[in-house]
Design brief:
Order of helices and strands: HEEHEEHEEHEEEEHEEEEEEEEEEEE
CATH class of the largest domain: Alpha Beta
Low-confidence stretches: none
Largest sheet: 6 strands, mixed
Oligomer: single chain
CATH superfamily of the largest domain: Oxidoreductase, molybdopterin-binding domain
Number of strands: 22
Structural class: mainly beta
Mean pLDDT: 96
Shape: globular
CATH topology of the largest domain: Sulfite Oxidase, Chain A, domain 2
Number of helices: 5
Strand order of the largest sheet: 14-15-22-21-17-18
Length: 367
């Protein structure tokens, strides 16, 4: 008798969904967490409220002592470095807005069955570490290196493929002073769920590039073809589209929900009169925000921007005084960056729901 397929190595084909979330999506949502939108008030998101996406299990690391990073492949000097050795190099602290590439997936239909983010998969933290280039310079990249590959100690299956979580960068990008080997978040050692004791942070890119629990770096003389690099985090029109890799953040803005909520529905109630709206806007690759607009029932007006942040990778605050009139109102916000990119009114479709940056809309009852 033929053996029944094993659901991990012979997974059923996933298909797009409409309507209610599947049980597996709910289980993912209970493991991962988004930032509460009222926390947009904070310039720096408290570590426990920063968005969190864990692909497999959080590796158990009892102590940072004994943690090493192996550097191999097409390098002149293969290395095994301790955390103390890495921390002996010059340290930098960068304020970085990080967002999940799947943020907003739940608002797209039909949606790909995965972590059902609405708007909350974003946060801004101060990351402290040493530029990656110090480690790569010590190892000596070969002239034929095509990709620098980063592996975490988290391991599991996706679509039947077993792998360590891994991502890559081109050598020129990896040698940037802004790409950091990080040991601290908001002035404290990394929390277990955020990659303790060592992670990569790639500012200006979606969060999948910032590999957590980093323990191995390899220099490849060919493009990295690991699952998390080529099988996912790729913009596709449909499953047959070869796609374009997701890299830098798309321009985006969010607002603090005004007024007070209903407990169960999270619907908003606002008193008529002057209502101060506040939010944050950001874009990728360090491109600054130059404009934010607020729409009330489809009529757009320009908001006031806070001073530009010191870090070009951090979000920028905005504010708007809304003269709220009684009735059901739709309020929305949209940002424009220095490259002229503006959030779309409607989301461009992506097969897996990546890169959703359409305007943030809220229905509000004004009493």
């Amino acid at each position: 008798m033929k053996a029944a397929p094993y659901p991990i190595t012979d997974p059923p084909k996933r298909s797009h969904s409409r309507g209610l979330f599947e049980r597996e999506e709910v289980r993912l949502a209970n493991r991962n967490s988004g930032m509460l939108l009222e926390m947009l008030r904070h310039d720096v998101t408290p570590a426990g409220l920063h968005y969190l996406l864990i692909h497999f299990d959080v590796p158990y690391v009892a102590s940072a002592e004994g943690w090493t990073v192996k550097v191999g492949g097409r390098v002149e000097r293969p290395l095994t470095m301790t955390l103390d050795e890495i921390k002996s190099w010059p340290q930098r602290t960068l304020r970085v807005t990080m967002e999940c590439a799947g943020n907003g997936r739940a608002t797209v239909e039909p949606r790909w069955p995965s972590q059902p983010w609405h708007h909350e998969a974003v946060g801004t933290a101060e990351w402290t570490g040493t530029p990656l280039r110090h480690l790569l310079e010590k190892a000596g990249l070969g002239d034929d290196v095509v990709d620098v590959v980063f592996f975490g100690s988290d391991r599991g299956f996706d679509s039947g493929e077993e792998h360590d979580y891994g991502r890559s960068l081109k050598p020129a990008h990896a040698m940037s002073d802004d790409v950091l080997l990080v040991t601290a978040m908001n002035g404290q050692p990394l929390l277990p769920q955020h990659g303790f004791p060592l992670r990569l942070v790639v500012p200006g890119w979606y969060g999948m590039a910032s590999v957590k629990w980093l323990d191995r770096i390899e220099a490849w003389d060919r493009p990295f073809d690991g699952y998390q690099q080529v099988r996912t985090y790729v913009y596709k029109r449909d499953e047959h589209d070869p796609g374009i890799p997701a890299t830098t953040l798309r321009v985006k803005s969010l607002m603090v929900p005004p007024g007070i909520p209903d407990w169960y529905s999270r619907s908003r109630m606002v008193d008529a009169g002057l209502v101060e709206l506040f939010g944050r806007a950001w874009s990728g690759a360090g491109v600054p925000i130059v404009k934010v607009e607020v729409g009330v029932d489809g009529v757009w007006q320009e908001a006031t921007l806070d001073p530009a942040p010191e870090s070009r990778y951090a979000w920028r605050g905005w504010r708007f005084s809304w003269d709220a009139k009684q009735g059901a109102r739709e309020i929305a916000c949209r940002a424009t960056d220095a490259d002229g990119d503006t959030q779309p009114l409607d989301q461009r479709y992506d097969n897996a729901g990546f890169g959703n940056n359409m305007v943030h809309r809220l229905m509000v009852t004004v009493r």
